[in-house]
């Protein structure tokens, strides 16, 4: 029995999810005629209290479309230095939008309103035009860290004052909502655009949704087509996303408990160095030189537990739907044995 803690993208669709997919009503979504895609988009827009939504194959695409629709070539985007949009999307900001990044040295992937104020360029021909702030919640490279709603509201205020757009990469937003007891409507009221992933903790095989105003989503449909993301009978996949949103959100709480159980076991070991605070389903920790990340991951793998080295000194484990409480017990026992 393989226990895959490398990412929450490894989940397999459940029998009930597959049944929902097989029975989906579909049409050509490029013509706007796939009823299940339309239902998913309307469901997400209502959930966040936003006007419209667009379904895309990946979170990279929803983020990149969002950035393209908010900017002009030559603009500057403010984000944390570890943001997914900056370091994990293949240089897409430059490739797709012709923009550059003002990378902030934030705290566990999170930045403040003061950071934003200090990074905005003055009106000076030497300087790129600052047009967009992009935040991530939870922060992947921040160890699944979560923003306080106050911080987001303060950043929004700065953006409004300076005429900047505010985008959220909410690939794991539902984990953050669960951990902080915040809700979707609060986010819909703050952000100009929000990207959510259905294929992470929610357990769908594919899919992300971008949310914003109706006018902006109309523009996003054009950009999605340009990027090759206009899909036809996509309702089969959208049905999995709808199923995940309706049935899997409450299960994220257990993933967070599991992550803390594994973290507690690791913290008892003298070969474990600094660990980022575990707030959601991600555990990122240092393995000290006397063992090393490779030997650690190799030993875990010999016990059928798959972990991911995310830097020469750090290992990441992520809990998700396909990691049961029994599996977590096996992981904890294995760590005790080391
Ligand atoms: C996974 C992820 C994405 C999107 O990734 P895709 O694999 O393109 O769906 C975006 N942002 C963050 C923070 C992520 O973890």
From TrEMBL:
Q: Which Gene3D superfamilies match?
A: Aspartate Aminotransferase, domain 1 (3.90.1150.10), Type I PLP-dependent aspartate aminotransferase-like (Major domain) (3.40.640.10)
Which segments constitute the Aromatic amino acid beta-eliminating lyase/threonine aldolase domain? 4-287
Which Pfam family, just one, is annotated for this protein?
Beta_elim_lyase
- Protein name as annotated: Threonine aldolase family protein
The source's domain of life comes to Bacteria
Sorted alphabetically, which CDD domains does this protein's record hold? TA_like
PANTHER family cross-referenced by the UniProt entry: L-THREONINE ALDOLASE, L-THREONINE ALDOLASE-RELATED
* UniProt family annotation: Belongs to the threonine aldolase family.
Which InterPro entries has this protein been placed in?
Answer: ArAA_b-elim_lyase/Thr_aldolase (IPR001597), Low_specificity_L-TA-like (IPR023603), PyrdxlP-dep_Trfase (IPR015424), PyrdxlP-dep_Trfase_major (IPR015421), PyrdxlP-dep_Trfase_small (IPR015422)
Keyword annotations for this protein, in alphabetical order, are: Pyridoxal phosphate
Tell me if Magnesium is a UniProt keyword of this record.
no
| Cofactors named for this entry | pyridoxal 5'-phosphate
